[in-house]
């Protein structure tokens, strides 16, 4: 029976998507305003317009006078922005470190194509990644980009390789970029704020909805900041039909949240702001196996984010990725009750997805003693080479008892993420058909580069999307399911 329901469900989703993607997509208009002048070593002056600024730098040992640094605001969505940085060299440059001060309040910077980056107060520093350190005489080279929370404002006190920028006057010209019609039909525009309806998820019009997307790698283990890049998110939305991105913020390993909470919370905020700009849903995942031992930290984390972002219609909270083999009623449930209470103090209605014991598989156990509250769903994880029909049977039991499920992580591999490179596509198809028949939303593991069969991308995949020639492992299957 569910095979026929799955077919009908997929046909209906395809009909809606064809209508949606018939609408034209757009990018925010970019205005590039360039200021050129001769370099004079002395007091540092930088000028920035609403679109872009050029900083004239006198350089040191590896930099020559007359270098221009163009800082372009690509997108600005109010609570954050994306910028690109280019260098024009009068004389060759072999390695660069750029620094400047932001005049406005900026936080949560995530840059790509750099080897080092830091933000100390208002002072931002970034160094080349090696392959992009050389700029030939007369060449203009876009060297890196970043997203940040806050307002773009002005930049001042710019230096290249430690030498202050010069000052001077110059002619200003405006070079507008091509514009396109306003974007229509993003997932959030189509569905609005989501809520739990019985054992399913419904949209703002009370119609059942199944979201499909991908999960990030543990943020601190990403090979590049794919999950924090707005262009990549928009590309997946437009080319993969992605509707939701899960941001897996690692909590316990060395270098993750417990070691550096300010940094990793800022990275999550970047992803939230990107999703708001792209019109996609975002899952904020406290990616831990022993989160109940860090309950105070989790309460503080979710309380703060819920207060500042709980008004958005596209945020979904996931307080506990995969509890280990611990008691649901005595250990996991009390933790969820504490974190849900902290979220609900500021965000009364966005969906919260609750992890379950044994790596989020014991949804049938949770069904016997559910957490009280509204708009609560329960996490189910599977890997098709390891988990087969017996786990679907457990999930059916949970749904029959009234639980709403969300598969926030799955792979067409073994439960180790496919370190052997193998995939089990026949069983994976049974799983995706089952999810379609039951309207269960999902995010597939994981958006990163590497040999594991659950890594979606191959070596050399750019951080900004355009990955048609960089798919590997179970990626083609996952993308095909996002119909």
SSE topology:
Elements: H1 2-22, E1 31-35, E2 52-57, E3 67-76, E4 80-88, E5 93-94, E6 97-102, E7 106-112, E8 114-120, E9 123-128, E10 134-135, E11 140-150, E12 155-160, E13 163-164, E14 172-176, H2 187-191, E15 195-197, E16 200-202, E17 212-216, H3 230-239, E18 244-250, H4 261-278, E19 281-287, H5 295-309, E20 315-318, H6 328-344, E21 352-354, H7 357-360, H8 363-367, E22 376-383, H9 389-400, E23 405-411, H10 425-438, E24 441-447, H11 475-481
Parallel strand pairs: 17-18, 17-24, 18-19, 19-20, 21-22, 22-23, 23-24
Antiparallel strand pairs: 1-14, 2-3, 3-4, 4-11, 5-10, 6-9, 6-12, 7-11, 8-9, 12-13, 15-16
Helix pairs in contact: 1-10, 3-4, 5-6
Describe this structure in a few short sentences.
By secondary structure, this protein is an alpha/beta fold.
What are the key terms here?
2 domains; 483 residues; alpha/beta; TIM Barrel; 5-stranded antiparallel sheet; 8-stranded parallel sheet; globular; Immunoglobulin-like
Describe it for me?
Helices cover about 25% and strands about 30% of the residues. Helix 1 crosses helix 10 (about 425-440), helix 3 (about 230-240) crosses helix 4 and helix 5 (about 295-310) packs parallel to helix 6. The radius of gyration is 24 Å and the shape is globular. The protein has two domains: about 30-175, Immunoglobulin-like (Sandwich), CATH 2.60.40.290; about 185-480, TIM Barrel (Alpha-Beta Barrel), CATH 3.20.20.80. The protein is an alpha/beta fold. The strands form six sheets. The protein has an eight-stranded parallel sheet with strand order 20-19-18-17-24-23-22-21. Strands 2-3-4-11-7 form a five-stranded antiparallel sheet. Residues about 1-65 and about 165-185 have low confidence and may be disordered. The longest helix has 21 residues, at about 1-20. The chain is built from eleven helices and 24 strands.
